[in-house]
């Protein structure tokens, strides 16, 4: 009985010691995000500006140059693409410009191994898993020859549904996954004992968005037929942050 009590006391002591060694804090900053993949030649992929904020924790390892670092982040990400193409409208060819904005919010959990190159400078890297909690896709169509035909559609890429186009309901399929997994690498510069400047780059390893074939378009050269945009895209996010440690 006494042996069990001693064992429990040792476990509690180890837990308290480990907890006391951990440093907790908060972090917030800027996201520069996009969805990477092979886009058709008439589509321009641009970056989307967002933000992230959350909590941090650092646990020192036996080697004084090493530590485990983790973050729990609320992060707004997405992509912006632009397309210009010829289409047949009321018997005449006309250019239609399309801008697609995909906005989604993730809860991200990166867990990284941190290595102190200098006393106040470290590099780190490790896996990250994210969960998409909400999303919206907004498509804006501009008809250069007939502005009356301009329209905007809004849909939820996390599920199948319908959108309205000139009074008609059009079905669409889910294109965005809820789980995002990849690797995160970065550097941390400690400006003081409590304040740090951080930069990270995250690249997804799994397909986050899959775009199905789209038919009924005409190529810029004037040829007709199926214009395929079927492709898979992975998440890419560059982050710049300020961190503050409480202890």
Radius of gyration: 24 Å
Annotated CATH topology: Porin
Order of helices and strands: HEEEEEEEEEEEEE
CATH class: Mainly Beta
Strand order of the largest sheet: 1-3-4-5-6-10-11-13
Pick out the low-confidence regions.
Answer: 13-17, 215-228
The level of helicity is: under 10%
Summarize the structure.
The chain contains one helix and 13 strands, in the order αβββββββββββββ. With 247 residues, it is mostly beta strands. Residues 13-17 and 215-228 have low confidence and may be disordered.
Give a verbal description of the structure.
With 247 residues, this protein is mainly beta. The protein is 8% helix and 64% strand. The protein is built from one helix and 13 strands; from the N terminus they run H-E-E-E-E-E-E-E-E-E-E-E-E-E. Residues 13-17 and 215-228 have low confidence and may be disordered.
SSE topology sketch:
Blueprint: H1 2-21, E1 23-36, E2 43-46, E3 48-60, E4 66-89, E5 92-116, E6 121-143, E7 151-155, E8 161-165, E9 168-172, E10 179-190, E11 195-204, E12 209-211, E13 231-245
Antiparallel strand pairs: 1-3, 1-13, 2-4, 3-4, 4-5, 5-6, 6-7, 6-10, 8-9, 10-11, 11-13, 12-13
Sum up the structure in keywords.
two-stranded antiparallel sheet, mainly beta, Porin, 1 helix, eight-stranded antiparallel β-barrel, 8% helix, 247 residues
